[in-house]
Prior knowledge:
Radius of gyration: 19 Å
Order of helices and strands: EEHEEEHEEEEEEEHEEEHEEEEH
Mean pLDDT: 93
Amino acid sequence: MGLRAPISPLMVPFRKMHGLGNDFVVFDARRAPLALDAETVRRVADRRRGIGCDQLIVIEPPRELGTAAWMSIRNPDGSEAEACGNATRCVTGLLMDEAGTDTVALGTLGGVLRAERRLGGLVSVDMGVPRLRWDEVPLAREMDTLHLPLAIDGAADPAACSMGNPHATFFVADVASLDIASIGPRLEHDALFPARANIGFTEILGADRILLRMWERGAGITLACGSGACAALVNAHRRGLTGRTATVTLDGGELLIDWAETGRVTMTGPVAESFTGEIDLPSPAQVRAA
């Protein structure tokens, strides 16, 4: 039996996209599957040795009736995320361009998300109904999700909800005064959050305007977080701090969030493509052999 020839890596095309600076490497695996183990995800997401991104996105064949595709989301640490609002806008924008339509449905671990093209290159996504029970967030034990017993270095008494992924929102007088790089990871990994959590630091500027900075689970500080902006508006309205519609200002720009009387949350904002390219990835056979 002779020696087997080495298996060559695959040169795989990708798109680099972003929503308000929240950036993604997007792979299309609808025709051929990709084998992305955690090590490969970390290599691609590395901003010095790879392409660099806040999340790695894979478009896959649809798993749900009536959807155009399935979107898988991987954090830079290799873990999987259930939802990402900015990535949803990017991917649904691509799918609408591809099909020549102004509406599309996309499957995710957080549920089926429906998108619509708006004027000015904006994309609006129906992010679904927020989940407000303690076991839906999830939290480690039963409690009121409007007031969590959690405080650390100037941030206290957050509210929690799930937008398909877990969020805790802190309301503070001055977001700029917080050392988010220090307290963010400690809050993300607090024992109160068995699946970890995205942490939002929110300053209420008015009944229809919110300032938000985000520490994203598995990614760190990001310029924007669509699901975090939705959670901030939901939790702010539940606290009586805002109306049901607000402009959320993040480090990377603005999103319009509306929590309709029907219970569904809609997020509207821009999408952009930065560049395209190819990168060598392990073949599925190499990953299976590892």
